[in-house]
Design brief:
about 240 residues, Arc Repressor Mutant, subunit A, 2 domains, six-stranded antiparallel β-sheet, two-stranded antiparallel sheet, about 25% helix, elongated
Length: about 240
Amino acid sequence: MIADDLTAKIRAGELAPGAMLPPQKELSSRYGVTLVTLRQALQRLEDEGLLSQEPGRGTFVTSPRLMYRLDSLRGLAEDLRAQGQSVATLIVAQELRRPPAWAAARLDIPATRRVLRLERLRLLAGRPAVHQLSWVPQPAGVPLAELDYSDASLYAILADHDIVVHRASEVLRPGTLDEETAATMRQPPGTPVFVSERVTFGLDDRPVLVDRATILGTLMEIRTERGATGMSMQWSRHQH
């Protein structure tokens, strides 16, 4: 209740970036909860990047720029680089186009609207490993189709243009290469792959980006670490 109410006020602009929340005793009284319950709610919002608790000063609403956190929300290439892998990006296509029906539905926009279509090939140690197709609505005044995506995270570029990345929802399923993608990745059709579909949302919970990544199953594997408090996932190269 507390976390949901504060989240709604932050997203609605009632609590602006940089605003200081009332003291914890006042908040606990206002919501009719104990300090322990209140602190748990504040910690949850801090973990989500919405609040910053500063000892001796108070609790503040974070600025939108700070809500882009590479340690909790980053792209596949950034995950691989963090593991010490050599990753290069080849731009296959970059243009404004009408999205296919599935992408328009994920972005919640009309299929007639022109958006940035960004097609990239990720090279792992010089070998094609990931084919990534991204569809991004272009806000007014932001020339997304003209920017350089060859050596920077798409999330970072969006953040540089004040498009706040807040969370993402991802589905991962097994598949095989179709003929067109197989030719781009220089692999035989039917090669085993993972297909990742990720929808990224802004601070207002509106979709700002949809990605479909085709990842070679012959080069990559998924490893998970499960514990009492949750699960972490890592991509790593197969060791032949």
